[in-house]
Amino acid sequence: MQTIKRALISVSDKTGVADLARSLHSHGVEILSTGGTAALMREEGVPVTDVSEVTGFPEIMGGRVKTLHPRVHGGLLGRKGQDEAVMDEHGIQAIDLLVVNLYPFERTVADPDCSLEEAIENIDIGGPAMIRAAAKNHDRVSVVTDVSDYDAILRELDQHNGQVSEDTRFRLAVQAFAYTARYDTAVTAALDRFQQSDRAQVFPDQYASTFRKRADMRYGENPHQSAAFYADLRAPAGTITTAIQHQGKALSYNNVADADAALECVKTLSEPGCVIVKHGNPCGVAQSADLAQAYDAAFSTDSTSAFGGIIAFNREVDELTARTIVDRQFLEVLIAPGFSDQALRILSEKKNVRVMATGQWPDAPVRQHEFKRVAGGLLIQDRDVDIVTESDLSFPSRRQPAAEELKALMFAWRVARFVKSNAIVYAGPDRTLGIGAGQMSRVDSARIGAIKAEQAGLSLDGAAMASDAFFPFRDGIDAAAERGVKAVIQPGGSRRDEEVIQAANEHGIAMVFTGMRHFRH
Q1: Nearest to 355, CA basis, from 335, 379, 330
Q2: Which is catalytic among the residues 25, 160, 246, 279?
Q3: Choosing from 5, 25, 136, 249, which is the catalytic residue?
Q4: Is 136 marked active-site?
Q5: Which regions form coiled coils (predicted)?
Q6: Is 158 part of any domain?
């Protein structure tokens, strides 16, 4: 146990700090502070000593230099049983508790109008130096960097007569180093953005990113694998990471992965829409005048695969939609921007179903990096968020798509972006009819998608077909024609494009090229 006799408090976020200082004072703790924090304590009637009185040196350079002094860092770094003599020689008194949080750098640089000069001025120097010093010397010093730890440290002082345990000091030290690492990562990422002038600089020589654990999980993809869920500190609103769980069991590793896939897909639909995902792939997608109709159409695409699936909506879930789902199927996760009170009441009948509300997401897709670990390394790329519009299309076939066919093609193309390659999607103007995913051969994906449609009792006569990458041979077009497909959308760019176009012409199929591929591995 280590007795707290002297504390240094210097915080940017002053939430709860006056109450903390008042409680420390009641335990007989001498309090040192700086600038605005010291001024607040005086306003609150808490006795406080300015750090400048301890150092004998005023704050200078607009506050850039105030705690960078041997009487501060010596007080934090002095080792019990080793450094008392040198501390006495230089008039250094021990500091037993450090309470510091840093300049709000991330909030500052989040402002699109933030200049480089403003960002630089909001880089905290003295704070991280003190935190690291205190954490390094956790054998004697307690360091608190999170407002949520104020009550815990006070409870420990109350329970142990003004002392803090070794376990608590160590835990706080680990947390402190994570805090400064996160801060340095934010600074690195922000300054890198300021220096970017072309695409070649998007990926820096050293990639820094920080994530905070949101939850431990029972296991990973399989029961023998351990797992946890971490949130990117820069995660935008309206994502699986920021969603609030209203009810249900804890999310599993696979739940999170599938809910993310479903949510990101449904975001691309302009009308009230529904996406049902199973094992990372959409098994039904539809949009309609209302959510209940969209759900009905998505479910009927592949009702077998929908069992135990993940359902995502792009509008608030209403009573009718909730009742239809509860009466019809078993599901793992339901995720949407929000839920009516009646819908939540109905969904509570299925107590194990995880009900997740994301809130509203930005209208435009957020450009972020995505990661894939490989043995000993990391692949990083931009998220695939580029949208093909009708003006981007080219029309190489003799027959041009009719308006309704073009609508179906664009719908199928949006869905294909979220189906694992090789991906084939059969669709009408507002719903999927059959999906073939993840095959080594594109023609096999086409066959599987057609089989799925047949099993669901859905006709492909007059349907649109989307392929996430070009057709290397004409066999995929021949197979589509046999099933009645009348329009095909694909990137183009194969050495055999002419052969494929010729196949479309022979079958009277309207073919559209996007010029963009959507591999999803």
Answers
A1: 335
A2: 279
A3: 136
A4: yes
A5: none
A6: yes
